[in-house]
Amino acid sequence: xxxxxxxxxxxxxxxxxxxxxxxxxxxxxxxxxxxxxxxxxxxxxxxxxxxxxxxxxxxxxxxxxxxxxxxxxxxxxxxxxxxxxxxxxxxxxxxxxxxxxxxxxxxxxxxxxxxxxxxxxxxxxxxxxxxxxxxxxxxxxxxxxxxxxxxxxxxxxxxxxxxxxxxxxxxxxxxxxxxxxxxxxxxxxxxxxxxxxxxxxxxxxxxxxxxxxxxxxxxxxxxxxxxxxxxxxxxx
Length: 236
Description:
The protein is mainly alpha-helical. The chain is 76% helix and 0% strand.
């Protein structure tokens, strides 16, 4: 356990000092600021949640994941990492924990920024119950997108870099935007977060239990595949 937490500490230092993390956060805050405002707080925060469900999660979380796993190959540090007295499984878990922690922290920062903007511009209809409902919904959407990050980690490991996983994230975003509003969207993992968000209103193609099972299966395949790849990384 101590070795695992040492690995988490090391991975956290790498990511927290990366311009990729802070550059992505500034970009997400900028876009949030542009989309701020609305007839009431429900619409104001709903705009921010929709950005998370449709774009921020896939591209923002995906880019961070691609960097954490792909940088080891791009910087040629993977051999040094594999030589450490830490299990490969622990390294993958440590990277996953750091990614999840910073993605959730970014979610909180953006939510807080959206609240501050709403207060500054005087959005009407403030209600603590509505704020907490929107906050809970946003956290759930963020968790859904974290589940979708595991295939990106696998692709970054297999391709030994950033380009393929980022291209994958962009492609899945395009698929989600085009096929999400159709009946097929309920079975496409990248469309499910946005469709779940719209479930609070009237949806033409509501989600069923199978949709959420698909999210878990995608995570399991990506996570197990990444661990398996790293266990054999020095043989490839």
